[in-house]
């Protein structure tokens, strides 16, 4: 989740590279929590993880130390999957995995009702679509809450697809590139012509595994440095320089305003 602190200035060379990066991009893949919205507004998900662990103990008994110590709603999905896959004296049923997925999806469905969109998201969507770029969401969140949120904002139609967490296998969450690969297959575009926008190093790792370019979106200077050192094509703390760069690529004056009533190429 993106930290809510004042934006930091991007290096001048990086600002100049954004136009070049966008010029070779035919599709932009946005992570959801952070790049699209502030899903949990800084609220801990430890309570959700604790509920999942209580339910899992009913079926499996004592949890592995890694699972017992986990206090994040997404991480606990992976820790339980690790337990399910690990050798055990008796076979473990899938029921805790199903219950955990259901609990986390409900949590996300509640969160999108009050989630705040990323600043200037609407302008970003207009700018990218006006350049003929296709958009998709690639996320560790469940797909139904993402679609509900895009519909709430009135921009669901601007996205070619939503590729969220595989409810059957938590191992496929980023940094695994599964959701990115599914998006690329749907778009029928080479990975090299797609740009993934993410706010975590796990997003960067997924982008590198899938072969896409990567734009870091974070106001955390430590995370920004990690992204640059990890090979990000660029890192920004707001969408302003991205929108400005997109404006330099349009043949006419930069577009503005809401999406309503605007024509954008497919």
UniProtKB/TrEMBL annotation:
Zinc keyword on record: no
Disordered, as annotated region: 247-266
Compositionally biased tracts (Low complexity): 256-266
Superkingdom assignment: Bacteria
E.C. designation(s): 3.-.-.-
Record keywords, A-Z: Hydrolase
One protein family per Pfam: Hydrolase
GO molecular function, one term: hydrolase activity
Keyword Hydrolase: yes
Entry protein name: HAD family hydrolase
